Automatic annotation (TrEMBL):
This is Glycerol-3-phosphate dehydrogenase [NAD(P)+]. One of its GO terms (biological process) is glycerol-3-phosphate catabolic process. Belongs to the NAD-dependent glycerol-3-phosphate dehydrogenase family. Signal peptide: none annotated.
Amino acid sequence: MSVTVLGGGAFGTALAVALGRKGPVTLWARDVSALAETRQSPRLPGVTLPDPVSLEADLETAARHDTLLLAVPMQQLSSLLDVIDAPLTGQALVACCKGIDLSETVGPCALIARHKPAALPAILTGPSFAADIARGLPTALTLACGDEATGRALQEQLSTPVLRLYRSDDTAGAELGGALKNVIAIACGVCIGAGLGDSARAALMTRGFAEMVRLAARLGAKPETLMGLSGLGDLTLTCTSDLSRNYRFGLALGRGEGFDPAVTVEGAATARAAAQLARDLDLPLPVCTAVSDLTQGRLTVRQAMDTLLSRPLKDE
């Protein structure tokens, strides 16, 4: 089966590099001219595209391959799917983005199913940084697909000697874990940026994880999925590393500093979607709601902290 990565950002390029070390892969980007000239991406300094990676400027041509890795920001996924004219019948569409679509309030697999119902949706998610994958450092991810045969085939096709994929049939759990951990990472960044300490961060991670499991279970996911790489594993990485965009964004919020608007921060949009789901489902998600209000300027850091600490005492 042939593979195309749609999206020339850091993560899409890193996946193309990793898979290109194994065999032929196509990389589509909105502007491939610079990549074609240098075989290097400014988002991955020091990394060169292997020879088996071919570059494609035409989206319809790139989309003819059997397996498409959709490596665009979550809020752009819907428009990408709509721009592709072909129905993509029987093709595996693997979402490589994390978040909840703001307009449709669903994750990437559900979005794929709505926009390309003849395709086979899957999601690749888990604790990973693009630079680590591109450099060939050992990484383990979750590959979730509702169709067992497709999931097994994708697991074999996309695994490499240093990129180990664990298979799951719980697409809802995998996509919610990957989406919601970004919200908690913003909260943890705010905590450290405001000087509240590591103990407070540990509390936020733990209570935030409880919210992740609570919402996932209400939406039909398996709680145990959140205990794996796509939930707890990704949460641990994203809430503790300066390489995480969402964590760095939270740090800037906590310090009262600006943040580069060109950097994609999926957790900000996901927090808004999670807060809307909390209202729709009458489900208590205080950390997610506080992050939503913070990122929209409705609360100050001090007000958000007071709101969380003044909640009624309860059993764990």
